[in-house]
Design the sequence.
């Protein structure tokens, strides 16, 4: 099933983004070769979460100056992170809700329960947070940051990634 990136966007956005997006013509799918009960699962969120005491927030000031730009960098969230450790930087969603209950955007507590109950093999040691609003061409994200995260996921032996969009 093709993904319609414009389903929830105003029609006026279509022309602006049509020229830079090259959507896949076939569904993007990779079979899970490892049984889920043995799989190591990593989480990826587009909510702009970061560790409040150690990470720099995502660059909201630049986005305010240039509304077509979004910070393409990412933050590594360890599996030991708890709700009180996290903050959120995002101009397009209500970050108060995310700080109150980060499990809605990075379900570490839920996946830890799944691991404990034997539903999944393990929760990966590291998880990744981006700010979902990106420059429409996604150049830096595609060429630099996404490949870095893929490499980190391989090093962590993650069998699958669950995207928790904001």
Sequence:
């Amino acid at each position: 099933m093709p993904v319609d990136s414009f389903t929830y966007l105003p029609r006026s956005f279509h022309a602006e983004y049509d020229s830079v997006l090259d959507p896949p013509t076939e569904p993007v799918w990779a079979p899970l070769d490892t049984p889920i009960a043995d799989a190591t699962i990593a989480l990826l969120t587009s909510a702009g979460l970061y560790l409040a005491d150690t990470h720099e927030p995502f660059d909201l000031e630049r986005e305010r100056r240039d509304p077509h730009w979004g910070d393409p960098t990412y933050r590594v969230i360890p599996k030991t992170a708890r709700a009180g450790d996290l903050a959120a930087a995002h101009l397009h969603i209500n970050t108060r809700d995310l700080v109150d209950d980060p499990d809605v955007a990075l379900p570490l507590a839920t996946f830890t329960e799944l691991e404990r109950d034997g539903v999944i093999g393990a929760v990966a040691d590291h998880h990744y947070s981006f700010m979902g609003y990106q420059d429409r061409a996604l150049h830096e994200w595609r060429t630099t940051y996404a490949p870095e995260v893929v490499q980190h996921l391989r090093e962590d032996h993650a069998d699958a990634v669950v995207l928790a969009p904001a």
Observations:
- The first strand starts at residue 40 and ends at 45.
- The chain has a mean pLDDT of 86.
- Residues 139-155 form the longest helix (17 residues).
- Helices lie at 11-18, 60-65, 95-100, 108-116, 139-155.
